[in-house]
Amino acid sequence: MNLSVNLAGVELKNPVMTASGTFGSGMEYSELVDLNRLGAVVTKGVANVPWPGNPTPRIAETASGMLNAIGLQNPGVEVFCQRDLPFLKQFDTRVIVNVCGHTEEEYLAVVERLGDEPVDLLEINISCPNVKEGGIAFGQNPGAVERITAAVKKKAKQPVIMKLSPNVTDITETARAAEAGGADVLSLINTLTGMKIDVHRRTFALANQTGGLSGPAVKPVAVRMVYQTARAVSIPIIGMGGIRTGEDAVEFLLAGASAVSVGTANFRNPAATVEVLEGLEAYMKQYGMERISEIKLR
Amino acid sequence: MGKVKEEAQVLSQERIGVGIYSLWLRAEQIAKTAAPGQFVSLYCQDGARLLPRPISLCEIQPEQGKLRLVYRVAGAGTREFSALSAGDTVEVLGPLGNGFPLKPGKVLVVGGGIGVPPLLELARHLPGEVQLVMGYRTGETYLEQELSEAGTLYLATEDGSRGTPGNVLDAIRAHGLTAEVLYACGPLPMLRALKAFAEETGMEAWVSMEERMACGIGACLACVCQSTEVDSHSQVKNKRVCQDGPVFNAREIEL
User: Fold this and answer.
1) What is d(CA A251, CA A233) in angstroms, rounded to the nearest whole number?
2) Out of 2.40.160.20, 2.170.150.20, 3.40.109.10, 3.20.20.70, which CATH number does the structure's domain A5-294 have?
3) Which residues of chain B make contact with A266, given a CB cutoff of 8 A?
4) Is the pLDDT of residue B1 over 60?
5) Which of A286, B130, B142, B171 is the most exposed place for a label (fewest CB within 10 A)?
6) B236 contacts A60? CB cut-off 8 A
7) β-bridge mates for residue B226, sequence order
8) Has A128 been annotated as catalytic?
9) Which residues in A lie closer than 8 A to residue B45 (C-beta atoms)?
10) Residue ranges of the domains in chain A?
């Protein structure tokens, strides 16, 4: 059985990767998961300088899901390159760096700094619902998506993944805009904006009031959006949103994704990524499939 | 270090106060390395409840591979745990966090509400003179017997029915208690008051913090608290309660 997949010329040994923001830069999870098993580690968002993130509480559980409003706390690209990247390079897995910023200039500063670093792909986060500037402000407007994609592509030395927001009327518009701007790959979905109110304290569960919904609760929305997007663009898609099992991953591959990311499931089960991979292998074995590309809708 | 996720066996469970439960687990790998002040993550059976619940370790018996968790039912997850009984199993990740540093000399161990349980194991490990000050809402205390065997116990109750009427600081003042080191776990206003008290009296203070967590191992950055200086890991004034804590020197953090 060959599980390898190719994303913009980069071969991954299998299509299972981590979803940005749920796995740090892999260091904390490496005690509980063999990172060598993963197709890629997608890092938490990295900005040009350290970001403090939002006030707490930053998370709240909801039925079959959770809301987060971490606010992209990160140590900045310099410390990331000196500390986190060398750590990740000890493992036989691809490294995808998620890039965040408040302005186009900030995104570009990170992209340029990473140019000569051992990074396989860049994932540009234009869809974080929890920061006031940048993030989703770029991701909801097709014109802005195309502009920032083109600007990043001009500077980037690695292939570029644009991470799209589901908080739009028609995701194929932003997907097409990213493709028009030169994106090599798309990843979707980021979290859905939500809110939880604590009825006993009669106030918001999150200090930020709103947060991004993730987990199994969002999976049908994510599958639908991957399916629509796959029919609208010709570049590969990394599908994510509520994946917990190998069969969940298969569902995204059937919808048209070329690879998948496991996010919130890591919190419930630190070994979720490896279990998704093993479940995917079991599925392929069950149906006598030799390659990932055989996983197709009838 | 050495975090592991294991399927723990429930040995027994009893209700020891209003909404307070005492759960004995066999979790051999975790019990082997756990230290006072560390905690574990408990996972719900109900798949709709995704996030693990962080619960402090009240007693650790490494030779028998046993852990005692004393917790309050605060929502649906802990309500699910409160229904566990002998023979059931529960997924546990641990040991998590740093634990209390064990200091010699005369110490004050101060707990309030559901902050009391982790202080029992701490008090048993402290080598010096241990004075315990525990605050409860009413005279319906819990863990009182075990605590009184671990040091000199002073009580404070909000309704004045037992010990000093008022809070733990009222009890400390009423008895004129002094110490070189203070340990505390409990509600934020209590920790704030004790930090100020420790600063006034020149005591070294260690506080155990609580915050909403997701991963429990330092990756997701949900459970941060504010640090007084820029933290080397985060590069901002944030420390992770689950990984850098839950125990902090009170001077390190903003309360």
Assistant:
1) 19
2) 3.20.20.70
3) 215, 219
4) no
5) A286
6) no
7) B238
8) yes
9) none
10) 5-294
